[in-house]
Amino acid sequence: MSVESAKPKANLLQSMGLGGTAAVFAVNFTHPIETVKTRMQVSGLGISPTCSSLMADEGVLAFWKGLPFAYGRELSYTSIKLGAYAPVRDAMEPLNEYMPAFLVKFLAGAVTGGVGSVVGNPFDVMKSLAQTNKDKTVGLGSLVTNMLRDQGAAGFYRGVGANIGRACVLNATKMGVYDMTKGYVTSATGWSRKDVRTAASSSFVAGFFMTCTVSPFDNIRTRLMNQPTDAKLYDGLADCFVKTVKSDGVASLWRGFVPIWARFAPQATLQLLTIEALYGYFGFRSI
Question: Quick check: 84 and 12 in contact, CB under 8 A?
Fold first, then answer.
């Protein structure tokens, strides 16, 4: 038995705590990319004019607009989708008798991503509104008060259908590809599964495939969540999809592909490297 396999597995709550910690650490570095991506999806502008207008009109701190909501999102949504993955995957091991192992990994990622998206949806809505606000930064209390006044508690769950679909696809791709790639990398190189090189290369590959599968969901989710608090532009996921394709074409569903990848690749790498390091520090088995 190897030293790694002899280590205990983190339980669900322990793993979720470590996952949330890793996500909060990573978002400090990737939030500016997320802000640029969100502005691009809403405005239709390219990377350069979006960054230029942000810097010129709102200053450098505008790239971190909505960061408190991002922290809330990471501690709710990502703690589940990232931290709960390994315990849920292990709990689903009996399914390996009925389906290929890689499908079980993708299923575990989809389940944790979907559940996490429901829990974190209010923070996603607030974060999106804060990032696209071009005026003076609106505080947490004001945003929440305005939403409750104009749309009630249901306003915090607008776009939840798109968010669940996005989260299921994203996390199934992210954790499934990452888990599988680690196996391929260890076989091809001889590196261990806990080796930093294994985690870094596997997470980068996962980041690319995440971008390919998630971009359409990400664009639709941004449009749904960015509706003004006092107006309703779309009647749900399907209506938003149809209107988007009619007005901007199918290719618009992948608008912001480069900044999405620029965010996903380092974010996935930072999150996964950090949670693997935390697993090791506390003596738990790696993913």
Answer: yes
